[in-house]
Every structure is written in C-alpha cells, then in structure tokens.
Design goal:
This protein has helices at 14-27, 63-68, 85-92, 95-99, 121-134, 147-151, 175-196; strands at 2-8, 32-38, 59-60, 71-77, 107-114, 138-139, 161-164. The chain is built from 7 helices and 7 strands. It has 197 residues and is an alpha/beta fold. Helices cover 38% and strands 19% of the residues.
C-alpha cells in the first residue's frame, strides 16, 4: 500500500476540507492510502506548547511521516503571499531529511485558500514549492485537461488547487474546487504508483 501524505495547516477549516477532498482522490486509486496530518500552531509572542495529540482533526506530522511517504500534498492558507508560519516552522525543521536526500524524486503538489480572489493564491503556491524543490521532490501542478480549471469562477490554478474562502472565511468549497482537489489527489496517487514501478 502506497502512503500519500496530505500535510496541511488550517485555521478556519477551508484547507482542512480541501485536504479531505485530496484524500478522496488519492484513495480512488487502488493500492493508495491517504495519510492526513497537520501541524501545531505557533505563537509570535513566545514558544507555544501543544499537546502531542491535537484535541480534534488529524494527528501532528512527524519527520517519519514525511520520510516514509510515497507522495505529498501540502496545503496552507495564504499569509502575505506565503504559507502560514506553522507549516513553514515544520518544514524549516526538516534539514536532516534534506541532508540524507530522503524526499528526492517523490512527487508533490500544493494547495491553498485565500479570503479574496486576488489574495496571493498563485504566489503562495509557488513559494510553497520552494522547500519541496530544495528537497528534490517532483512538483505536480493541475493541468488544463481538467475542465474545472477553465470553468471555475472561484479557486483553481495550474500551479495547484486553490479555494476562495471569502472575507469571513466561510465560503464552502465550490463544485469546481472539489473536483480539482479530487482530481489532483488522484493524479498524485497515480504518479506515485508510476514512480514506484
């Protein structure tokens, strides 16, 4: 069974919902299992101490989860054209995996959510790719053979899936966004299988 890691940080729930749609797409491919993981919050004022197990939702990710995965979907809300600090904080701790080349040639894709349509979706997706490229991962975008990418009036980019959460961060995922999450998760799983053959 191939393990595809869906690693995300979600503050208001939209990215978590996207992660579950990715998981559905991954698990539509025989022999592939989605492993949902998140990261703890960080504080800008002092070191934040979290329990080892979150009160709800996915378990916190470990370096072992990342090292043992066969593919990665990485999701974050947008923070000034970049991923949220909690996810960056975790990725900044993965130098030991980089040093031994643990992620080289594993496929990866990225996804994000913003409050406004022009809230930095594409630049966030591009900046999320940077640490993955340094790790030697193979980046998968969302190709235009997905009709929903051309039809969407909300989120969706060729750099990865996006969602328009709205100013109150309470917009549900649109039908197009759900399709794009599912299909990109499916593509990630298919590519992971191909690379293992």
């Amino acid at each position: 069974m191939l393990k595809i890691l869906v690693l995300y940080y979600s503050n208001y729930g939209a990215v978590e919902k996207m992660a579950h749609e990715f998981a559905r797409g991954i698990e539509s491919i025989a022999g592939c299992e989605a492993v949902l993981r998140t990261v703890p919050k960080v504080s800008s004022h002092c070191e934040k101490v979290e329990s080892d197990i979150p009160a709800s939702g996915a378990l916190y990710v470990t370096h072992e989860d990342l090292e043992s995965c066969d593919g990665l979907a990485l999701g974050s809300p947008t923070r000034f054209g970049n991923m949220a600090a909690p996810l960056k904080y975790f990725l900044d701790s993965t130098g030991s995996l980089w040093a031994k080349g643990a992620l080289i040639d594993k496929p990866a894709t990225v996804f994000t959510s913003t409050a406004s349509l022009h809230g930095g979706q594409e630049i966030t997706l591009l900046t999320m790719m940077m640490p993955l490229i340094h790790h030697g991962m193979l980046i998968l975008g969302t190709p235009y053979n997905q009709a929903a990418l051309s039809e969407t009036m909300t989120g969706g980019t060729p750099y990865g899936v996006s969602h328009l959460a709205g100013p109150q961060s309470n917009n549900p995922l649109s039908s197009h966004e759900k399709i794009l999450c599912f299909e990109t998760g499916k593509r990630l799983a298919e590519m992971s299988k191909r690379l293992k053959q």
